Amino acid sequence: MKLEVFESKHGTKVVTASNLHAALKLPVRQYGALVRRWLRDAYEFADGIRRPQPYRDFAKRPRPGEPIEDFFLTLELAKLIALRTNSKDKLKYARLLDTVLHNGQMSLFQQAA
Fold first, then answer.
1. CA 69 – CA 48 distance, rounded (Å)
2. Which of the 8 DSSP states describes residue 54?
3. Taking every pair of C-alpha atoms in the chain, what is the biggest distance, in angstroms?
């Protein structure tokens, strides 16, 4: 499974919650509950301990006609989420996200699970 990194018009690099969930091989039936927990939980961001803020750390991904809600997550939030999951691949993806976050490299496109 590839973790896709998107870049916004403003240069912000993001991943989708559905892609992160799939890459971490988390149970499909728990997607909705896990995403809600991810967006309500408190994390240790670079600027302090706080909850993710809309349009700063995440934004709703518009998907007309799709029954499942999806979100764009900043790389920092995605890394913090990955570290907190029960996935066997959490360290792998957290390191990849950290590399892209700090080096600006798009190396995630070549990585497969």
1. 28
2. B
3. 37
One-letter amino acid at 105 equals Q
- Residue among 38, 4, 36 at smallest CA distance from 22: 4
Report which of 24, 23, 16, 74 is spatially closest to residue 45, judged by C-alpha positions.
74
Averaged pLDDT, 60-83: 92
∠110-112-113 over CA atoms, to 5°? 155
CA–CA distance from 14 to each of 5, 6, 29, 88 (Å)? 6, 5, 24, 22
Please give the model's pTM, rounded to 2 decimal places. 0.86
Structure tokens at 1: 């499974």
Sign of CA pseudo-dihedral 46, 49, 51, 54: negative
**Which 3 state secondary structure label does DSSP give 55?**
coil
pLDDT value of residue 104: 66
